[in-house]
Amino acid sequence: MDSFDADFHVHSKYSGGTSQRMELPVIVKQAGLKGLDLVATGDALHPGWLRHLKGNLLEVGEGIYGVEGSDVRFIVQTEVEDCKRVHHVILFPSISAAESLRDSLEGYSRDIDREGRAHIRIGGEELVDFALEVDALVGPAHAFTPWTSLYKEYNSLEGCYGSNLGHVRFLELGLSADSCMADRIAELQDLSFLSNSDAHSPWPHRLGREFNRIRVKELSFPEIRLALEHRGSRGFVLNVGLNPLEGKYHLTACSRCFLKFKSVDAVSLHYRCPECGGRIKKGVLDRVAELSSWDEPRRPSHHPSYLHIVPLAEVISLATGISTLTSKKIRARWDSLVEGFGSEINVLVDSDVGDLKKADLRVGSIIERFRSGRMNYIAGGGGLYGKPTLRDEVDEFWGYGQKTLSDY
Fold first, then answer.
1. Cα–Cα dist 408/40, whole Å
2. Rg of the chain, C-alpha, whole Å
3. CA distance linking residue 243 with residue 379, whole number of Å
């Protein structure tokens, strides 16, 4: 068995709010620098993107594709929004399977020809029926986020997928949750957890900012299916990603001014901000508490540990005080470390901390902090991302010492 690092959810330039640089030549180069072995294609139902995929990808394994001259591999993938505004990740066994599903769903969508993340007028249960016809795999995308997720709309997996629940093998955690949180929910015990980037740009602080380390005999669609079903010795051996405190919906907060609220206060205020009148969005942490079967996580043997990381450009930003991640000084330091250690993933996850400190003491010390769980964070909420910090800052909540708008 071999281990591979995979990001199973990205987008193309055809999705709203996505960089025009999200094209295969750029993705391939940046994925190699990141250290990813396998990247999702994203947006595989869009006709323009399908043409781009067919014009650039070569099948190099069963259901696995590559670009000539690169060792980075691709799996065909898309994300769709159903009639309840629930988002789903779909993994395909081939490009032709994606084309077939596109043909089947075309009559249920008004934007499948122009939007990479198509909106379809069917629910989750019927979507699985269509996916099964082409041997594709379906699971909830960013399952806990408050706007477009399964647990926004439903209190259970069965509520969404109905009689087809038995065909759902995975759940994507999203940036605002991790496996420790999800392992408090009994109905998720048998599923594999995906930690994916949902990247909208190809740069390494976005692409692969969350990824999965999987153990399979080879990179192929059948082997990935077996890993998702944790059969034999195949499976997920590590989930890697941002601390959920960095997710922009982790805490309950106002979606206009981003004031943070304890759950009991948000309820008493009927989810309306007393400062600006904005809508208070229930955070993932509070939503998980509502869904939880247990106060503490109960991790089954097939759920690996979760390593919280900080993208290397952000680590260098913390080390230097330079806030612009694309600055020349940050890029030069990033290039030096990646060249010295082989990839960003090697720097963040696998390289010896002592060697990192010898190469760059400040950066190595910060990596040591998050590897050992000693990083500090200001949590996100209401649509505002959280952030790692080297200072002893704490989150402030409305009614608990939080400054109000009139204080500024």
1. 45
2. 21
3. 9
Contact predicate 114/74, CB 8 Å: no
Tell me the pTM. Answer: 0.96
CA 235 to chain centre: 18
- Residue 212 three-state SS: strand
Q: How far, in Å, CA of 148 to CA of 229, rounded? A: 26
Q: How many CB atoms lie within 10 A of CB 321?
A: 7
Please tell me the CATH superfamily of domain 2-242, with its number: Metal-dependent hydrolases (3.20.20.140)
Flag residues of the chain having pLDDT under 50: 403-408
pLDDT at residue number 407: 42
**Is 161 strand, coil or helix?**
helix
Q: How far apart, in whole angstroms, are the C-alpha atoms of residue 144 and residue 150? A: 7
> Domain-by-domain residue ranges, the chain?
2-242, 311-371
Do 310 and 375 contact (CB within 8 A), yes or no?
A: yes
Residue found under tokens 């259901």: 63
The predicted structure's pLDDT at residue 237: 98
> What letter does residue 249 receive in the DSSP assignment?
T
